[in-house]
From TrEMBL:
Listed transmembrane segments: none
Gene Ontology CC terms, in alphabetical order: cytosol
Residues making up the signal peptide according to the UniProt record: none
GO biological process, one term: lipopolysaccharide core region biosynthetic process
Organism: Fluviibacter phosphoraccumulans
GO molecular function: ADP-heptose-lipopolysaccharide heptosyltransferase activity
Name the record gives this protein: Glycosyltransferase family 9 protein
Length: 342
């Protein structure tokens, strides 16, 4: 496997060098048009794709760039005035995708931003065995280390994503969700169904979520997610009944989000919605915070955290088992206190 990766790095480096004259011309044209190309090479991670809007918003504010976006989740960038073109990965043929990605890899630089890692990282030796996993340590910033080429300057403490809706969407969604009594809060109780790797390690116990819901009856609780996720007593059950755009609309109108770490915890930052997260010890919570994030962690955290593992080797998963419902209730009331009267 290591030899295959090394061969890929060498090929990619050679292609990059060969295309230098073309890249100069392309950079000049993109600068003239004030455009930047951002493409996400991650898998199905919708939270990672949403972070593209964080990068674009920063570049737009700093330098006036508009973006050409290439991703698996174009629905995240609809109606965004900073987006010049929104290209869907899924709508291209396999051959077209391969050729397009080859071109983008050769054009990487100031105006072509890779998000999510590549085989070869600009500025490193083609023989390097660099991996993003080597950077997974205490205090790392998730967004920073998913920009392998280091060609984007962000204030990682204040950077947030951006989501926009059309007037027509507002009208349709207002009608669909008219039966939800405000004020309401959203619950995303699990990472989802069929998630890869160690995603389920982020999950907190359903009975504890139910206890938190019962202790905070001043809002209507709306549970969102996929069909097949376990429902939580005390919530309106909207599992499997919303599109991505619809759940983003609900989030924009909610007073608070209570959720495991994932897509919606990132999306909440687009609307300045307080987000309470019972954090597992899988990630370092300090690298995933936004201005309105309210993290809840075990105190003390187990010595194995952050572990970055795909499976837990500790009896009882203490990083989440030691987070109490009372801790989360205090955090929820903190978030609601700041929004319930506004």
């Amino acid at each position: 496997m290591a030899q295959i990766k090394r061969a890929q790095r060498i090929r990619e480096w050679a292609l990059y060098q060969l295309c230098t004259p073309l890249r100069w011309v392309f950079d000049h044209w993109m600068e003239h048009k004030k455009l930047v190309f951002i493409y996400c090479v991650m898998g199905e991670g919708i939270g990672d794709a949403l972070a593209i809007s964080t990068i674009l918003k920063s570049l737009n504010q700093q330098q006036g760039y508009r973006g050409i976006i290439f991703s698996r989740h174009p629905e995240l960038f609809l109606h965004n005035p900073m987006v010049a073109a929104n290209i869907s990965y899924r709508e291209l043929s396999s051959l077209s995708r391969s050729l397009f990605k080859t071109f983008l890899r050769a054009m990487r630089g100031k105006h072509v931003v890779c998000f999510g890692g590549e085989v070869w990282t600009l500025g490193t030796s083609p023989l390097s065995d660099y991996s993003i996993h080597q950077e997974m340590k205490e205090g790392w910033v998730w967004l920073k280390f998913l920009l392998p080429d280091g060609n984007v300057s962000l204030d990682y403490k204040t950077a947030t994503p951006a989501v926009y809706f059309s007037p027509e969407e507002f009208q349709v969604y207002e009608q669909k969700f008219a039966g939800i009594q405000p004020p309401f809060a959203l619950l995303k109780a699990t990472t989802g169904v069929g998630r890869p790797g160690g995603s389920s390690l982020k999950d907190w116990e359903i009975p504890k979520f139910a206890e938190v819901i019962a202790q905070n009856p001043e809002v209507t609780w709306v549970q969102v997610g996929q069909t097949g996720e376990q429902s939580v007593p005390g919530c309106l059950d909207w599992l499997g009944k919303t599109t991505v755009r619809e759940v983003l609309y609900l989030l924009s109108k909610s007073k608070l989000l209570l959720a495991t770490e994932g897509f919606l915890t990132h999306a909440s930052a687009a609307f300045d919605v307080p987000c309470v997260i019972p954090f597992s010890g899988m990630h370092d919570y300090r690298g995933l915070r936004y201005p309105f994030t309210i993290p809840v962690v075990a105190n003390p955290q187990p010595i194995c955290a952050p572990c970055w593992r795909d499976n837990c080797n500790q009896p009882g998963k203490p990083c989440t088992a030691n987070i109490t419902a009372n801790q989360v209730t205090v955090a929820v009331r903190q978030g609601l206190t700041n929004t319930i009267t506004t």
